[in-house]
Amino acid sequence: MTVRPPSAIRRSLSSRARLLPALALSPMLAVLAACGSSPHSADAGLAMPKNHLLSEDRSASGGDDQIGNSGVNAYLWRGAIDTLSFMPFASADAVGGVILTDWYTPPATKNERFKITAYVLSRNLRSDAIRVSVFRQAFTDGQWTDTPVAPNTVSDITSRILTRARQLRADSGGH
Known about the structure:
It holds the Pfam family DUF3576. By secondary structure, this protein is an alpha+beta fold.
């Protein structure tokens, strides 16, 4: 035996049943509509994130001496981004001057991996305005273990970043 609700209740349930999926989809439809909107619209919000790397320091002139109102030198920032671009980035904050890479395994060695953190500390293009930390792990006995990096690794990476930053400044006509 099948029990059916009275027709008035059945109509009410039927309209609610049709309304619930529409209500559940409405936030997703709003997000999709925002994704298709013009990037210049004022209400783009989260659908159109701003890429500070592109808007601040990748101008034709190589970037200004400083990124926005931050204490970060744009040449050092771009030099660090360019130098470390062979590694995958986990995070890059142009305003704070922090670059965190993800683990990178060189093609020649499958049993070691590296991670680099770079900090741009000043508005000035000087050697003490960049700090680099390199982390190395080796795969032994089925697990990754921390191991020391070669003594010159940090200084070599820092030198390459500084060289690239100076090249960017020279290319832009800066002194």
